[in-house]
Specification:
4 helices; globular; DUF7330 domain-containing protein; six-stranded parallel sheet; DUF7330; 286 residues; alpha/beta
């Protein structure tokens, strides 16, 4: 099932880039200085608290977004037993007719909740590959994302957002690998659990992660963000769970450096694909 809004601004011609800080160099040609700390970077931002914008005098390369972009919506849901793959543009400022919103809240989309997730993707066996772009820039409105597959892998990318609009993501797989790409202005708690696999942070992200245990950490600076407890927290939040796969966290701009997987990763992908095929065969029997 797919639900999209019929009205709203078109983003089909959008070519807005998002900033990354994979490579930072002096604009005047002088020797590069040691990079500032995470807190210093946030503190020197000219785009508001918690945005992670670069300090004055530093140039950050731009990475173009995929084009053409689909039309923006406030809510989107899919439920299938096949692969789910797409680019999703969410505008939380968009007004949805009450009758449509009520129908979504009572059905699969909302699962009886008062307000449904902005993005809800579910597949019984297939993989999920979702690229997310946030365009409203509402700092007080947190975007909620729910991704779930019975056995496939999950590849989630938060490519771009305006004014560091907060996002809460929950991703779950039975035995697939999980890869999450986050923007450099992400600032919030992490929960991660892999029953048989490993949890890995990219080399570029590792200096900004506080790991408190094997399944809990924080990406960024909680003093800058003002995080104290989950009940009152309305900022960035991420939870990733898989029973048999590996979990990997990377910066979104590291997509440009993406390389083919190791032999071990390819072997795991082959096993996962075989298990998906078996599950699909049994699921299709009458």
């Amino acid at each position: 099932m797919t639900i999209t809004a019929k009205d709203g601004p078109s983003t089909s011609d959008s070519k807005a880039p998002f900033n990354s800080s994979a490579e930072i160099e002096q604009t005047d040609g002088s020797p590069a200085q040691a990079p500032p700390s995470y807190a210093e970077t946030l503190g020197n931002s000219t785009s508001g608290p918690g945005t992670g914008a670069p300090p004055a005098g530093l140039a950050i390369p731009e990475v173009p977004l995929p084009t053409p972009l689909p039309r923006a919506t406030n809510y989107h849901a899919e439920k299938t037993n096949r692969e789910i793959k797409g680019v999703y543009v969410l505008d939380t400022a968009m007004q949805i007719p009450p009758a449509i919103l009520a129908n979504m809240s009572s059905g699969f989309f909302g699962l009886g909740k008062k307000e449904p997730e902005n993005l809800n993707l579910y597949t019984s066996y297939g993989p999920i590959e979702a690229d997310l772009i946030l365009v409203s820039g509402e700092q007080q409105k947190r975007v909620t994302v729910l991704l779930e597959t019975g056995g496939g892998k999950v590849d989630f990318k938060l490519l771009s957002r305006i004014n560091a609009q907060p996002v809460k993501v929950k991703a779950k797989s039975g035995y697939g690998n999980m890869t999450v790409y986050l923007p450099r202005d992400f600032n919030g708690p992490l929960k991660y659990k892999s029953g048989w696999g490993t949890v890995t942070f990219s080399e570029g992200m590792r200096p900004f992660v506080h790991q408190f245990s094997g399944n809990m950490g924080y990406l960024g600076d909680w003093n800058v963000a003002g995080f104290s407890d989950y009940k009152t927290w309305n900022g960035d939040e991420l939870e990733v769970v898989t029973q048999g796969g590996n979990i990997t966290f990377k910066w979104a701009d590291e997509l440009m450096q993406r390389e083919a997987g190791s032999p071990e990763e390819k072997f795991h992908e082959a096993i996962t694909y075989a298990m998906q095929s078996v599950m699909s065969w049994f699921g299709g029997r009458k």
